[in-house]
């Protein structure tokens, strides 16, 4: 029995699983053997007996043998780089082909004891070609750090949910033109950045699936946010809306406080299809050339996504939304049957390429609008941690992604049962095997039309909590990822795009991870609700200088909602309280919230931001949330960038999203009450933004 157990543990560690780990409370934990077996089986590693474990371990050792040159060698500027596949070889010449032209010749020397030779330090970041020992490969030379904001920068920006924005003739759903309007309205007030919810491709044929953090494909764009008028003018859109008898529905949805995703997306796509069918009437020569160039540059990745969208629309009624349940001959993007169907329905494939082109142009226009209006950063794009396994990214890269497990998070104080997000992502061994090609493509797509990116759950660069299909979220384990390689590639792409990087580092943080992120120039994220000092709130001066500061996030209550306990009321209403949503839970939670409100009021007073005498029980802070004062409190931190969610700027009480809640709360649906220029001109909103901006100026002195 002990031999079998030891063999299982050894195999698990060899496969990258952390058998022993520490929870959020600091307690030592060990993964249950049944969980280990379920995960290893999902990895294709038989492990029910000691013999099977030994055979699987031998397979892993053979796969890990370094015999040939890797497709991508990752190096750091100024540091020698080992060449392990050349171990035991003597002196050799090499030639480097710089990516911007020219070559460099040199040699590597044999090392004592047969150790692998090392490539001398290189000083030029980029992707360079290397010829050595009969091998040709690419060397990714990363700078020491990501692109960074200037020293003493104390800028500020807004965070916005793209779908929530309003403008005339939007049909009830925010779009890229509304984002550009917001940028032009915010920049004159001093905003340097707009952090935007993810714009990854969703499912055109499945509009009721709309969480931006559960996308179909992170390489491409969410076509639901296309403004049809941006390509052919408002007159053509009004004509299309009238011809399709959509006017009444457009007007009704535009007046509603919540996004009606399914009808709004369907109507917008009907308009776009109408315009696509008549493209010869309005598509200029320059636009046609731009579309053709976009399709050429998109290559196989774009074609495959467009094919998926075509197939999904045609197969979902009979075979469902999950491509894994489709006929076997259409489960791969380049199968003969998929090729045949793509030829047969070439116009439908072209339509989805057209939609991606419009989305790309809309996003690029918004970034140009932000920079032209004076923002130094502009858009902060959001890179989701994973994808819906039924989507096109998994279909395109089925053999490279985790199978039989879902991404999630272990139990913590806020989620005592843990979280299983139902998402998939690339397997760590597949990333290395294919030279990180897909990961680099994701980074480039995120950076392409932004002044920075936010990496969701950057903790996953070091380890990812994975949960076997069908098991509870707490029955998971951590899987190691190649942290240093991924950080090097992020730094390189950040340097190439001259864009900053924010890593969302909330949750159960591995030891020393924040130090690694900071050393690579990634900014962390400090949130007011977690910036505590015992029972109180940490003063602004004690916040991190290498992190972005913010009042809240999309998964946490707004400031006004927190102050009034709206999140507690919602948890009670949907039954997600510690006692099944009982009154006892609400009473306990509200008792803690009252104490926290008093603590925050004390912190504001200590900063000279809250007038009046100290508040001590049973005296209460004001009923109305001190929004401007709280914004100024966060603004005074030493963070190089501070973000104020638009919901906090306008004083919205209701949350954007309640994690773990599927029904009972309108996640990802709340719209802003007016168009951005009108909102920002409101006297109360303007006062809050002035307080925020003035606090940033004070922090810079």
Automatic annotation (TrEMBL):
Would I find Transferase among this entry's keywords?
A: yes
Name its GO BP terms in alphabetical order. carbohydrate metabolic process
Enzyme class, one word? transferase
Q: Name one GO molecular function term.
A: 4-alpha-glucanotransferase activity
Keyword Cytoplasm annotated: no
EC id: 2.4.1.25
Give the record's keywords alphabetically.
Carbohydrate metabolism, Glycosyltransferase, Transferase
Under Gene3D superfamilies, the record lists:
Glycosidases
| Superkingdom of the organism of origin | Bacteria
Q: Which reaction does it catalyse?
A: Transfers a segment of a (1->4)-alpha-D-glucan to a new position in an acceptor, which may be glucose or a (1->4)-alpha-D-glucan
Q: Which family does it belong to?
A: Belongs to the disproportionating enzyme family.
Q: What is the protein's given name?
A: 4-alpha-glucanotransferase
